[in-house]
Amino acid sequence: MRNRIRLYLVLAVCLFLPLQSAWGWNSIGHMAVAYVAYQHLTAKQKARASALLKLNPDYKLWLSYLPKKTSASKKKMYVFMMAATWPDEIKASNSGYTSDHDTVPDSPEATSNVGYTDMFMHTYWHYIDVPFSTDGTPLPPIPSVNAQTQIAALRQDIASDEADDVKSFDLAWLLHLVGDVHQPLHCTSRISAADPKGDAGGNFVKIDTSAKELHAFWDNLLGSGSTKNYATASTAAQALAAADPTAAADLKESDWVQESFALAQSKVYVDPPIGPGNGPYAIASAPNYSSDSVAVAQQQIALAGARLAGVLNAELK
Questions:
Q1: What is the mean pLDDT of residues 249-268?
Q2: Where are the alpha helices (H) located in the chain, listed in sequence order?
């Protein structure tokens, strides 16, 4: 009964609260991924991550969100969670970072790893547009710089002897991107005659909820909130069922992307209610679509957290 009530509350949030821009899981989802991961980290890796994240330019801001009486152990956990939102926070218009308008720049900056002196938003690091089409429209190539390539690079970097300020940057990005590629719509773009270049992972597909488009609906399936709502994310994460151990042990980022790509086709672009074009489509009244979507999101967030912990325990030097 408690699980059923919890599910209804999540659905109410998804359908009736204002939802933010489509940035992967929203802050609640990303912090939930990090919470799950933190529970599986070794004591040594928790200490290492804590030391590195103190070098993030937003570290003092994160601490300001915490009550003064927060214990030292809780501070470390909450900072770890909040750090997972940082790559989205720098996309704000007043962040001081340079926007690349979702286009991979034809320059060395696209994949450079110089740490916090890098002032590019790198929006194209957040997704990989694996294309598919149901009407025979030719498929475009996958951009050469994407979430999968960057996760692979970041994993190699955190296992290296690079300087701590750079490794801190890598860790914050890795916390975020592992979550991103477990959001099905961050691993695909539906190609059609109406959208020959793709629907941007459902961003162009209009729906009848307050989310307004399909990607935002999926981003917010665990709830809506900002980095300040770390306690909400913690509560949501504690309610998740543990990830399947066999699936959690798969630490290949290419497998994660293919899983999300398959889920996008089988669980997201479901007709009905999601038809072949850009809508608008009626999700709010569609039998089981919302509840099925929440179940997928919960599964993916738990799985992302378990896999993130596996990567950090094995590779973070």
A1: 98
A2: 2-16, 27-40, 43-53, 59-64, 72-83, 86-89, 147-158, 164-180, 214-219, 230-238, 245-248, 253-263, 289-315
